[in-house]
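[job 4471] stage=fold_predict status=RUNNING
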Amino acid sequence: MWVRADGEESWDTKKKLVKKAIECGVDAIVVRPDEVRPVLELGSVLVASSEDLPGVGVVLRRLSSPSELQEVKGWATRVKQSGKKTAVTVDVVDKQSERAAAELGSVADFVLVCAKDWKIIPLENLIADFQKLPGRLLAEVRSADEAVLAAQTLEVGTHGVLLDSRDPKEIERTCERLDELSRESLSLTTARVVSVTPAGIGDRACVDTTSMLEVGEGMLVGSQAEGLFLVHSETLPSEFVEPRPFRVNAGGVHSYIRVPGGKTKYLSELKAGDEVLVVDSKGRGRPAVVGRVKIERRPMVLVEAESAGRTFKVLLQNAETINLVDANGNPIPVTRLSPGQELLVLVEAGGRHFGKRVEETLVER
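[job 4471] inference complete, writing structure tokens
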């Protein structure tokens, strides 16, 4: 979500918008060149402006007419070569301007599409086009309702929205509505434990988030992308250590972990600032930001479980404080696992290519 704060209002008026946007955690704010410095003095945020000034992370330009397309594409290429990101605003009023917006998606980092009447924007066409382009499509909206519409169009939605509102409360409402949409619903199933065996010493990763996790929540982790185990958070009291309600001791660094948007990463890839998916026993998922990843050498245990004729594996630290989740949604320590018990897993067909699910023949043992 971006917020527009580059209007003709007084700085005192825009200051309230900027403060609310930073407070809500928006991704970027569009500002006037002469107000870049005071905006950055209010907090750390990505700033987009029409001049390449110190502190500007995204250089912005408007496509006034489709006839300027080649000139603007050349400008975007030059700016990107200097190391800055680019954004181009396009007023989509007809088929020609729609095509220009799509073509800019091949060179600009962000394309911001605007219109006075949403009914004349062929948003479905642009969303489909941008699925194949490196650029990100943002729709200018004036309310939380319009933001939700843009995010849900064609089920895929735009990559983001640019909110043009002079009401700080509308910024907050829009953030809240988009946060609700970012939650995922997954169909967890059960897998029967086949074996639990010591696996020597290995590097395991604790994923510490900037969110407080609840009892029943954890992360989806596994040695095979098609079968991920629900590993419980360290929210439970123990005689050995105090609860760490922000942490999931997620297992071997080689493991896949589910992240928002239906993607996976390797635990070894995670770093502060990344997002992971926090999931409960009902399959309800929400994004959480990684604050730290702790990788340490620890004794490991290999858990193998079978579901629908397929065997899935996960390597976890061999300790009483590490829990998986049983079929009833209850945490169960890996040290008490035995063959025949049922665990919650996410089973999906297909393989993974750079974290994205693809339909291909792939075997991971």
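[job 4471] summary: The mean pLDDT is 91.
[job 4471] exit 0
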